[in-house]
Amino acid sequence: MFKPIAIAKPVDLAPYIDHTLLKPDATPSQIKEICRQAVEHHFASVCVNPIFVKLVATELAGSGVATCSVVGFPLGAAPTAAKVSETRIAVADGAVEIDMVIAVGMLKAGEHDYVRNDIAEIKRATGKGKLKVIIETCLLTNAEKETACRLAKEAGADFVKTSTGFSTGGATVEDIALMRRVVGPEMGVKASGGIRTFDQADAMIKAGATRIGASAGVAMVTAQPATAGHDY
């Protein structure tokens, strides 16, 4: 039986936040700033596009905050070999967590062996690091969400994750509860996409999330209003 994490006050959320900056126009100076924030607030990780992994690993060295990279982002439509290569480069540059996007179209076509193998190959390339599998819930039926979670678990992934933040919708409490029910208590569940307040994050945690991906992490843990903008 899964027991939700107890979050008594905003600051308690910090160890579960992946502090995220995935905007296409993100600059090195902005990346350094989110690293500084992550260290200050003791977030779980900093999640960035692959081009910035080496910079983030350097900035976070010795801090206890993990370096996270996205792979096959945001469409998931690259061949497995390309995703594997991207993963290996990210790991070599210092990433210890990988957030990959599944082959959504292949899932919807019923090509379950392809999807499972895609995840398994990236898990192998991740090595000792953690693999989070983005299933892009807004594009799936409930049955497809269940299948995606099952395939991720069978492939050895460490987490399932709701969304990229670049598609038609983000995380919902209902989807988190569904994902938790399917994967059981052993796997992580990451809520990402559209989460900008402590109350939203807390609701996701209560539904079964064990990680929150957001660009508004500082606002959440300090109980301040988040600035307007997309959650990536």
TrEMBL record:
Pathway(s): Carbohydrate degradation; 2-deoxy-D-ribose 1-phosphate degradation; D-glyceraldehyde 3-phosphate and acetaldehyde from 2-deoxy-alpha-D-ribose 1-phosphate: step 2/2
SMART domains: DeoC
EC number(s) per entry: 4.1.2.4
Name of the protein: Deoxyribose-phosphate aldolase
One Pfam family, short name: DeoC
Gene3D superfamilies registered for this protein in UniProt: Aldolase class I (3.20.20.70)
Protein species of origin: uncultured Pleomorphomonas sp
Any Gene Ontology biological process: deoxyribonucleotide catabolic process
InterPro entries: Aldolase_TIM, DeoC, DeoC/FbaB/LacD_aldolase, DeoC_typeI
Function as written in the Swiss-Prot or TrEMBL entry: Catalyzes a reversible aldol reaction between acetaldehyde and D-glyceraldehyde 3-phosphate to generate 2-deoxy-D-ribose 5-phosphate.
Keywords tagged on the record: Cytoplasm, Lyase, Schiff base
GO molecular function: deoxyribose-phosphate aldolase activity
Entry's Gene Ontology cellular component terms: cytoplasm
Annotated catalytic residues: 99 (proton donor/acceptor), 161 (schiff-base intermediate with acetaldehyde), 190 (proton donor/acceptor)
Compartmental location: Cytoplasm
Family: Belongs to the DeoC/FbaB aldolase family. DeoC type 1 subfamily.
Catalytic activity entry: 2-deoxy-D-ribose 5-phosphate = D-glyceraldehyde 3-phosphate + acetaldehyde
